[in-house]
């Protein structure tokens, strides 16, 4: 228990250190005293020189810090690093790998215990304790303690190391090679610009609590602040109005509602009346809300804490100094923040906003939804990055790969600038293909459809020549509201989509919430949300939601007759039968009401392994099938699609996934039903080639990928693709399959169509290792 306390305090102390040397200094001194040992030192592996550098010590000569270094496999330090496990020696000097540095005064010490510091599989360095001759040797308990310290601190060390790396400096303070920081892709594209850190205008946590006698002035101050913030948000919403559809603008209404008298302000006023000064009362209320939301397991609800904190900061800054100064932004602003919020995004004029970077959040956050709608390259979830260091620096945002680079070398800048130019040219060049069919050189026809959510997607899809909508994610208009949209509201959203593509088909998926997609006003808290109450399971349990949605869809389709309905997350035949029953019921009711509508085609999504084995039975009951390869991959491989820790295991080119895809297409066709695919794999040129060869009738993807996929498919024969498919089905590793497909596409002359982020990362790696 005592050790546990030591550990807890140590982690806290290290977390509050300002830089790497301070953090490492704390580690060596605390570990030395906790273990009552004579020496504790940290060696870190410098990625540039590939040498272990003595970075901090308690017990060895301080002058040696930063000077003594060992080659990657040199000495006992190199041995610990390369074996990736602890080495505990009673008599280190007698070990054949012992290497002694007079600068450190190490000769006095005989026993040696070294443990590796490993973060996400990468050896960052080695933590060492040493004892003098005749002293005890380290026992098992001490070894276990040191391993625990090292495992707990690896993340913190990685974070502090990143601080230096952002300035382009190596551990030794020299110019380093370009270091990339990885997060989660938020919105595709590449941006090169200047980092502008949006920090809290006011620090709520720093506000002291204070009792006041004179309550009225505090109330007046607070009232003014609320009005000012209301106005501010109204202005931001107005500034964005031309770029956003009403459903996207609804986000700002949510903000304004939080500022309503009976919401947050009401509670603050109560506390002011109890004698707390306005700033303190605000702090208390906001912190209480934030704690409440942050404790929620649900991702989407946790995002609410961000909104509340943002509101709190805005109110505080008005309380503290009245008006905020107007900020000017550089031409290519890369907006960086610990927590980007939709309101922050609206503060930068669109033509100056090049990219977005957020430490917190994921592809599911409000900001990511808006960024995609606005086409701003975005990286989210950059957990190891110290935000404040990015102010004023040149930043490259790679929204394809979810990576950023800070202080890039001339070489890297040119490299990404070329990608930007190529992308622009490629897109322009592909415009000519808009009205051409997607047909292979040997006459095989495939339909290319788009996935949509927001209206902006629709506009872009039409200009890219999509032949219809293969997946309209109806949860998106539900997610940006603060209550279920009414039947009439839904009808308007749906009508827009149907009208934009008529007479081409528009496939609307019934509400697919749960998993990582939650509604603030309908919270679902579960231990395993992806294996829980999701998609059709929720809506069949709540027919009042399902029926209203289907009714809105059917009414919206009047006179257009291009609606198709698709059911998500089906794992049982009975779910299809129950849904069909409800759809028929609504169909008859709506007709009886006098609407001139046709019975829409109904399809099922194959995205759960069970459905793969019941494709025939499912297909017998519906008009079409569509594969959700995003979920199918996650469920077949047991890899959470949103968890960055296992992201490298999430692979749609996994042989098991490909075998399943082949089987689905064969079985659907065997019973005479069309089958399409609407997961991300369809928008990947290599994936599209394999899917076409498998016989998929339609590929549905995001609008940006469509022209590239069309261009590739139009330039090759189905026979060529079939041969490629046959070859890769013989391979057993996802990575080898991916390389094989990439290589074939490259040698067929399609290198430029591969995702620029992917190929750039690969090419850069080749360069670095060369
Ligand atoms: C899928 O799972 O592949 C799919 C298209 O649906 P979503 O990504 O919305 O879960
Ligand atoms: Mg899905």
From TrEMBL:
Reactions listed under catalytic activity: L-histidyl-[protein] + phosphoenolpyruvate = N(pros)-phospho-L-histidyl-[protein] + pyruvate
UniProt cofactor(s): Mg(2+)
Stretches of the chain forming a coiled coil according to its record: none
SUPFAM superfamilies documented for this protein: Enzyme I of the PEP:sugar phosphotransferase system HPr-binding (sub)domain, GAF domain-like, Phosphoenolpyruvate/pyruvate domain, Phosphohistidine domain
Molecular function terms from GO: kinase activity; metal ion binding; phosphoenolpyruvate-protein phosphotransferase activity
Gene Ontology annotations for the cellular component aspect, listed alphabetically: cytoplasm
Main subcellular location: cytoplasm
Keyword terms of this UniProt record: Cytoplasm, Kinase, Magnesium, Metal-binding, Phosphotransferase system, Sugar transport, Transferase, Transport
Alphabetical GO biological process terms: phosphoenolpyruvate-dependent sugar phosphotransferase system
UniProt xrefs under InterPro entries: GAF (IPR003018), GAF-like_dom_sf (IPR029016), PEP-util_enz_mobile_dom (IPR008279), PEP-utilizing_PTS_enzyme (IPR050499), PEP_util_C (IPR000121), PEP_util_CS (IPR023151), Phosphohistidine_dom_sf (IPR036637), PTS_EI-like (IPR006318)
Pfam families on file: GAF (PF01590), PEP-utilisers_N (PF05524), PEP-utilizers (PF00391), PEP-utilizers_C (PF02896)
Leading EC class: transferase
Location of the GAF domain: 19-167
EC numbers, comma separated: 2.7.3.9
UniProt subcellular location: Cytoplasm
Similarity annotation: Belongs to the PEP-utilizing enzyme family.
The protein's name: phosphoenolpyruvate--protein phosphotransferase
Native organism: Marinobacter zhejiangensis
């Amino acid at each position: 228990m005592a050790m546990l306390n030591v550990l807890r305090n140590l982690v806290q102390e290290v977390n509050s250190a300002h830089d790497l040397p301070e953090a490492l200094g704390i580690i060596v001194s605390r570990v030395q005293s906790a273990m009552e040992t004579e020496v504790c030192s940290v060696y870190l592996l410098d990625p540039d020189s590939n040498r272990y550098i003595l970075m901090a010590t308690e017990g060895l000569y301080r002058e040696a810090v930063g000077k003594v270094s060992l080659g990657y496999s040199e000495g006992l330090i190199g041995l610990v690093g390369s074996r990736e496990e602890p080495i505990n020696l009673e008599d280190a000097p007698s070990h054949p790998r012992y290497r002694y540095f007079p600068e450190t005064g190490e000769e006095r010490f005989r026993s040696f215990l070294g443990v590796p510091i490993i973060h996400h599989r990468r050896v960052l360095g080695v933590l060492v304790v040493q004892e003098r001759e005749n002293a005890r040797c380290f026992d098992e308990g001490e070894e276990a303690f040191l391993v625990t310290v090292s495992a707990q601190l690896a993340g913190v060390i990685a974070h502090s190391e990143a601080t230096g790396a952002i300035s382009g400096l190596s551990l030794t303070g020299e110019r380093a090679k370009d270091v990339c920081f990885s997060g989660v892709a938020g919105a595709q594209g590449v941006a090169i610009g200047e980092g502008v850190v949006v920090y809290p205008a006011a620090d709520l946590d720093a506000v002291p609590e204070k009792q006041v006698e004179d309550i009225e002035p505090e109330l007046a101050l607070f009232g003014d602040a609320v009005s000012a913030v209301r106005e501010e948000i109204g202005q931001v919403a107005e500034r964005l109005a031309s770029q956003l559809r009403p459903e996207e603008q609804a986000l700002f209404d949510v903000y304004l509602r939080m500022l309503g008298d009976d919401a947050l302000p009401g509670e603050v006023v109560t506390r002011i009346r109890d004698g707390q000064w306005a700033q303190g009362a605000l702090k208390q209320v906001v912190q209480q809300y934030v704690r409440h939301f942050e404790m929620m397991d649900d991702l989407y609800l946790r995002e609410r804490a961000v909104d509340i904190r943002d509101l709190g900061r805005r109110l505080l800054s008005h309380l503290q100094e009245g008006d905020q100064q107007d900020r000017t932004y550089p031409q290519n602003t890369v907006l960086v923040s610990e927590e980007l919020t939709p309101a922050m995004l609206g503060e930068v004029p669109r033509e100056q906003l090049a990219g977005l970077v957020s430490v917190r959040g994921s592809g599911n956050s409000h900001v990511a939804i808006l960024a995609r709608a606005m086409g701003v390259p975005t990286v989210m979830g950059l957990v190891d990055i110290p935000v404040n260091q990015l102010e004023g620096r040149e930043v490259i945002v790679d929204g394809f790969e979810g990576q950023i680079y800070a202080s890039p070398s001339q070489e890297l800048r040119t490299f990404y600038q070329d990608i930007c130019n190529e992308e622009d040219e490629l897109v322009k060049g592909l415009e000519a293909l808009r009205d051409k069919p997607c047909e292979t050189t040997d006459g095989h026809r495939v339909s290319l459809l788009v996935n949509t959510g927001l209206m902006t997607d629709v506009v872009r899809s039409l200009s890219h020549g999509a032949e219809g909508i293969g997946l309209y994610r109806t949860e998106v208009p539900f997610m940006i509201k603060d209550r279920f949209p009414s039947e009439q509201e839904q009808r308007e959203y749906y009508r827009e989509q149907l009208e934009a593509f008529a007479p081409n088909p528009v496939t609307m998926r019934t509400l697919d919430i749960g998993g990582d997609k939650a509604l603030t006003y309908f919270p679902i808290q579960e231990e395993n949300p992806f294996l829980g109450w999701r998609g059709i399971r929720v809506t069949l349990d709540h027919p009042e939601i399902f029926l209203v949605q289907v009714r809105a869809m059917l009414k919206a389709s009047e006179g257009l007759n291009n609606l198709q309905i698709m059911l998500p997350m089906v794992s049982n035949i009975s779910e299809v039968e129950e849904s069909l029953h409800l759809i028929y019921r609504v169909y008859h009711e709506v007709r009886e009401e006098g609407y001139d509508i046709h019975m829409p085609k109904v399809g099922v999504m194959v995205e759960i392994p069970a459905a793969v084995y019941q494709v025939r039975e499912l297909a017998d009951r519906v008009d079409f099938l569509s594969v959700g390869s995003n979920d199918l991959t996650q469920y077949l491989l047991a890899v959470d699609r949103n968890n960055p820790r296992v992201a490298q295991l999430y692979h749609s080119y996994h042989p098991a996934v490909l075998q399943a895809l082949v089987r689905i297409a064969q079985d659907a066709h065997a019973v005479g039903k069309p089958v399409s695919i609407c997961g991300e794999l369809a928008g990947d040129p290599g994936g599209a080639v394999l899917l076409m060869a498998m016989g998929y009738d339609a590929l549905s993807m995001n609008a940006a990928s469509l022209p590239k996929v069309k261009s590739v498919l139009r330039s090759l024969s189905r026979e060529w693709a079939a041969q490629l498919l046959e070859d890769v089905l013989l391979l057993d590793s996802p990575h080898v399959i991916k390389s094989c497909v990439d290589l074939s596409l490259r040698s067929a002359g399609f290198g430029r169509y591969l995702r620029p982020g992917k190929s750039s990362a690969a090419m850069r790696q080749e360069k670095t290792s060369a």
